[in-house]
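Researcher: Next entry: Carbohydrate ABC transporter substrate-binding protein (Streptomyces himalayensis subsp. himalayensis).
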Amino acid sequence: MRTSTRRSHRMMALAAVAALTTGLLAGCAEDPDDGPSDSSSGGGDAKGKITLTVGTFGVFGYKQAGLYDEYMKLNPDINIKENVTTRTDVYWPKTLTRLQAGSGTDDIQAIEVGNVTEAVQTQADKFVDLGKEVDKSQWLDWKLAQATTKDGKTIGLGTDIGPMAICYRKDLFEKAGLETDRTKLAELWKGDWSKYVDLGNDYMKKAPSGTKYVDSASSVYNAALGGATERYYDKDGNVVWDKSAGVKEAWDVAMEVATSDMSAKLKQFDKPWDQGYANGTFATVACPAWMMGYIQQKSGDSGKGKWDVAAAPTAANWGGAFLGVPTASKHQKEAIALAKWLTAPEQQAKVFAEQASFPSTPSAYANLKPAADTTAYFSDAPITQIFSDSAKTIPTQYLGAKDQPIGTAITDVGILQVEQKGKSPEQGWEAATEEIKDVLGQ
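Model: Predicted structure:
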């Protein structure tokens, strides 16, 4: 699992939204510490070989899918060492320091989507222009745009993305007297997250004892915002979070949830939320592709065949990362070749098969094969079709340097004030505003 944090002068809090980019999946595991580790299994004497280091945060799936071993067999003169840092609040500041110093970087550096705009705006000269090395049409336009400067330099190649769906407990829906067919459900809430919330009101009328419709209002907020073109910044890079139509719509639908009885009022990725999966506490969750592995892990064997997947009200994205090659790399040529290979459609498909990280390269979609146990767990839902349909229609979003902490202030301060502490929506917005002003130094 990838984690990400933010720091304000008030606190260091877990930023779960940006945390879950690529690897919250079937093998959602964290490293035991925040230090580097050699995750390759090449081992042995690397004398006479070029050792390429790959700096990542959390689980990217390359080792798990056997890609490092495969590449080293194809290229006997290459040895790969992966340096893993569990948390991006440790990883990214460390990486920035080394980029600015022009030394100490890995040959390949992963960049989380919440940090890519900062990298594009302030560190572009520290990265190789990978756009000159690849066929850029391989990637989704909006994904490529996230890592490309205004003058056309591409500092990172897209790994995965987080297309959105709704995962739901069809057994709980049936007990509540609701429709359980995934196609009919998708039609019921198509085009409007408020329709998804309206179904929650119906669920609560006959909710099975001890259950709620949704895990949290923040979950709904993030999902709804994931389909908005304008979020916290406009296309010119101006901070507009307090004027953004996308933020307002997502906030309003989140408040419908937070002020009702349909939410389990759980903070995502905290232990009680994990226990909520195991105990069947909530019937639905906003579900980017990487969430499926997390559900399998936390719901356990008792959830197999009870979960299903339906298309989300709107196409949306939550998560994703990139691989960049610093200009300080001592082995630029070899690093570029490895970055290209790891992010090629064929390799992205292999990672998907291992842990459901959804590719950012559309040509891979036709041949994607999720793990058999994942398909069975989610009631044989057409997972690939649902997520690929979403991925192809996600709008290009304008991201900014402080996207991540602004979002965390809204979810972990503003929304929680309403949902868990009984504050009014106005009071929650005011609390978020104060926190965001602090983040922006205003």
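Model: Note for the record: The two ends are 33 Å apart (CA to CA).
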